[in-house]
Amino acid sequence: MPLELLELRGAVSLTSVPGVGARTAGRLVAFFGSESEALRALAWCRVSLVEEAVGRAAAVRMVHGLYRLAYGSWPRDVAASDEAWELFLAARRVVEERAVTRPGRDVISCYLPSPSPGSSERRSELLRAYAEAVKLVPAVDEAVRAAGDLDWPRPIKPPKLKRLLVVVGDRDAYERARRDLSGYLDVAYAEDPGDVEAVAEGRDDVVVYDPYQVYRGPYATVAELTVEEVAPEAVVEQFRANWRVLKSLSTFIDTVGAEGAARLASLYGLELDPSDLERLKWLARVLEGGDVAEAVDAEYARLRRAFARLDAVLDDVEAWVNEVLREELERLEVRIPASKLLEVLASLQRGEPPSIELPEELYEVFTRVAEEAERRIVDELELEADEAELVRGVVPRAPAYPLALDRRPVAELRALLASKLGSRRLHVLRTIAERARGLRSVMDALVQLVAVLDAGRACHQLEARGLASYAHLVADALGVGFREALEAALLERMVRGDASVQRVSYIVGRVPAEPNPTRGERVVLLTGANSGGKTTLLKTIAQVVLMAQSGLPVFAREAWVAPFDRVYFLSKPQGEVGAGALEQMVRTLARIATSEGRRLVLVDELEAATEAGAAARLLAGFIEYLAAQEDVVAVVVTHLASEVLAALPEAVRGSVRVDGIEAVGLDDNYNLIVDRNPHYYVLARSTPELVVKKLAKTAKRRGEKQFYERLLSLLSGSASPRGS
User: What is the pLDDT of residues 486-539, one digit of tens each?
Assistant: First the structure.
């Protein structure tokens, strides 16, 4: 079970993906570092990363292009009308919003309608496997929630270092280094060890490739020509820049355990070694906050602190020195007249020799304070003996006030600390890079695993609450059937506690649904009460089919779907309808009726586009055309069912089923009581009399009440009898 959501068969290059031109391909390669990495990001549905490279619209277009390449059809060809597409997006959004990570939401966003039942089944396997994951590792739900901050690992361009690698006396090694390492640092060749200094002249950061230990110069040596040895920063940077990803993964591993994470990976066909996962946790601790943690190497931490705090410590010590000297000079006031002391202080401040001979005690004070200040610098910066030597003389012994530290020796100390820090940093980064060897692919795979688990968890959450199930995809049938289904918006209302929401069951066409009281009719006229749920039923049918064909669970207890090449949803005309709108509607009907492939056609009260008599004849002509085609299933909502049936040829009329959603009365609050489950083979009334009855019961003014009662008597007298 591969974790790639989109199949790349035949995609030998980015430009072979429909919708990807040379310019877009170039931007992807620049962002991801290579064409293969860009293709993998697409196949793994890292949509939000692709979006950063080319924008949202282009990223979505590329995902759709991969569907076209893999399955032979654009997703928008399957959801063949704008209304059908919007209904699918609304249903999918219900699942997306239950994912807790951005990668999980990205994975769900790559579930798109396909006409192939096999491809839909394969994609749904990834989601359905979550149920097995819970049995395998019960803590997986907690682990995914704990990793909620997870994001995709960002592609990091390897840094070009100022370091020089000198290869001594080995031409083959030099050529190999130029080929494999010149992207990270400069490479030079020295004929023999004595030439290294000349080759490296003017360069501060130099390493020498010396596997036989013949070089005796001042530069560091390496015995291997690997990135981990000569440019460990390039390896560490991949993880340092993604330390938040590491942190989320570490939390995930902590929750399920390394062995548990490996078992989960095996469920999806991944082989992850628990020891690699432990190394990944170690790496997360090492790079906490995006830098090397102090606990990794005490000497490196000491040097970093010393170098970073050098100026601040000197400033603090200088302030301390002058504070102590001020106190000592005030103490000496008892030995020296105040006027003389002020004169001495003034001369010291100007840097002039004192006007009177100073007592020996004063010189002792300056010496003692200077020695204590230098000890403070050494202690505060945790300096070692050779570094402490360079602090001598930083605090002048000669009397002066205020006293300024001599910063000239500090430059030498700073240079020494920088040199030591650079060497130690290289040593630490080599250690990290070596231990992180091979972990980039482990990190990528684990992120993908958590993303798919998150997507599966979102679906499982709906399943566990009895709100969704995976449809039975039936290749050798034609139609759709479901038990106790919900339209997406109604599902959310039910979740929020709306007790008035009613599930519906329905069948159209020939599918192995159970129970099935129908005779497999492919074309249905749906009739019934105003606000009774006819439009909602059409939306539910569309969402069940499109969700099933995407591989996502459908919002029903059980469903059977024979996949369609195209799903059309035509909503009722809104507002004022003119001749142009009627012309457009007829053109749309013609396009649907004459298109090819297996089609599901859902039509909602198109009679509003023209007068009733003409509308009935238009619908009859459309239905006659559809009924004659063996690969079409249609449900048409209309209040003109009797007129449409009358306009149909007798041979066609017998193959068209009429179903009805019936209103049975008003409740105590005068709200319409409707059984939203359609009754098969029933021509249901639209029940305008119930609406008028409600108005008559609730009218406040006597005149209005009399008007409604008169309308009610007329409607009751002219109500159409129930047909069959």
Answer: 999 999 999 999 988 999 999 999 999 988 999 999 999 999 877 778 999 999
The CATH homologous superfamily for domain 485-685 is: P-loop containing nucleotide triphosphate hydrolases (3.40.50.300)
C-alpha distances in Å from residue 227, one per residue of 160, 161, 218, 323, 434: 12, 12, 22, 53, 9
Residue ranges per structural domain of the chain: 1-72, 164-230, 298-406, 485-685, 687-724
Phi, psi at residue 376, to the nearest 5°?
-60, -45
User: How many Cβ atoms are within 10 Å of 125's Cβ, its own excluded?
Assistant: 13
Closest C-alpha among 419, 401, 471 to residue 117: 471
The dihedral of CA 75, 81, 85, 91: what is its sign? Answer: negative
d(CA 474, CA 558): 13
Q: Are 600 and 566 in contact (CB under 8 A)?
A: yes
> What residue type is 350 in one-letter code?
R
Q: List helix spans (H) across 512-639.
A: 534-550, 579-594, 612-627
> What token pair was written down for 155?
């592609």
Whole-number Å distance between alpha carbons of 95 and 81? 22
> Using CA atoms, how far apart are residues 265 and 262, in angstroms rounded to an integer?
5
Cβ-based neighbours of 419, under 8 Å, separated by 6 or more: none
Q: What is the pLDDT of residues 8-37, one digit of tens each?
A: 766 578 998 888 899 999 999 999 999 999
Cα 302 from Cα 293, distance rounded (Å): 12
Q: Omega before 115 cis (within 30°)?
A: no
Residue pointed to by tokens 């039942």: 117
Give the SS3 label for residue 187.
strand
The neighbour count for residue 225, using CB atoms within 10 Å, is 19
Report the C-alpha gap between 29 and 393 in whole angstroms: 57
In whole angstroms, give the CA distance from residue 111 to residue 120. 9
Please report the beta strands in 129-216, taking only residues with DSSP state E, as ranges in sequence order. Answer: 164-168, 186-190, 206-209
User: Rounded distance, CA 324 to CA 349, Å?
Assistant: 16
Region 584-605: mean pLDDT is 92
What CATH code would you report for 1-72? 1.10.150
Quote the pTM value: 0.86
